[in-house]
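Task: fold both queries, return tokens.
Query 1:
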Amino acid sequence: MHLTQIRLIVDDLAGTAEFYRTVVGLEPQVADPAPPYIAFKPALGSSLCLHERGDLDAMLGELLRPGRGDTAMVSLRVDDLTGYLDEITARGAEIAAGPVVFGDRIRCAYLRDPEGNLVEIQQWLTTRSGEPVPPAS
């Protein structure tokens, strides 16, 4: 398993991205980031990403807590999403949503930890450049 990112769920994507770019000093992963999702990839460590709340609401329906209850999500990458979901449900996990596919690159499922935090389990289908996907492990 690979921790791919900490993702903040935001209402003001442009303002929050500007804060992380100009105040914190992080550079976006791609030259011209576009909504609904912006990733900042530092030279070391995992990514800090921003995702528009409205986009996640549209994709996941009632999964997000109303009234800004969800503000962060932990994203973990595995090589075989279906197999991993089978493993964790056998250990007592309850899948809250998914699997869903974002574009043609990532297949995801969602669950909550005992504290109610949103956890996304990802399987990468292709890289941004179309290269083979490296293993998560």
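Query 1 returned. Query 2:
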Amino acid sequence: MKSARLIGEVIGHMQQYTGDEWIEYRLRDLISKEIFEYRGDLSAMRLYEVKLKKELLH
């Protein structure tokens, strides 16, 4: 899933808006903790895609 779409989905479900920068920071933190895998360039949210690791889907 494109990271910008994922961030938009999260913003749509939040009751209190915190900003897309914070949500992208948390997404990158989850990537560094190896909860999400990514493909692309992490320099901008529109340049990479993420997916949940297969081990966590079960």
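Both queries returned. Flag for query 2: The beta strands are 36-40, 48-52.
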